[in-house]
Amino acid sequence: MNDAARLADQLQQAGYTKRDIARIIDRDPSLVSQFYTKNKGAAFVPALRNVLTAVTTGGITEIPELAELAARHITRRTTVSGTKARVRTKAVLITPTGTGAGRVAAQAIASGSTRLRPLIAEAARQGLRLAFTVRMGKSGYVHPSGSRVDSPGVRRDTIQRADHTEERSYGSSTTGGFDAADFARRTDATGGDVTAAVYQWLVESGRIHPGAHITHLEVRTWRPR
After folding, report:
1. Residue range 138-153, pLDDT digits in tens
2. CA atoms of 18 and 24, how far apart (whole Å)
């Protein structure tokens, strides 16, 4: 094993999953698997080494704190000319006007919708507003289809699917949407799990039943006037 895989193994022995490690270095979980299969990860060795030290001797165990520590030791690769190499990413670009969007489905939902985390974090940094659409089985919602109590003024004609799921939107530029910084804090509180953060908000606000399963999630951003 290369150094990155060896350090990842030691972190797993300390109780962290590959998904946790991916959150700590702010990358997709597939990259951690490639430490083992494709000999990748050299750029993350200093960060992983410091994280492992923090866990084993410093008593730091929370993923957000470890992610903050790791970020200080992750540097971008450089090209032959000495400029920073571009990073391939699935995160959706936020335009100069603040408009951005990202959507994930079943597989990404199960892994915490981590692709949406950079979008939410950047929206929070820029002070943007945020809205989202969730799709789940009809029985998961507390209020009936089209209820203004659920999502007033937004897609009153709820999108119903043949598989007995519905899409419902929450927030819009018309209603003002939500503070992206608030959802960024919620996401950080769940260890970077966007799915869990949205689920908790829906349960807390009385919109879905506890135990309901989100199958699709879309996040949209814009700049307030």
Report:
1. 999 999 877 778 876 5
2. 10
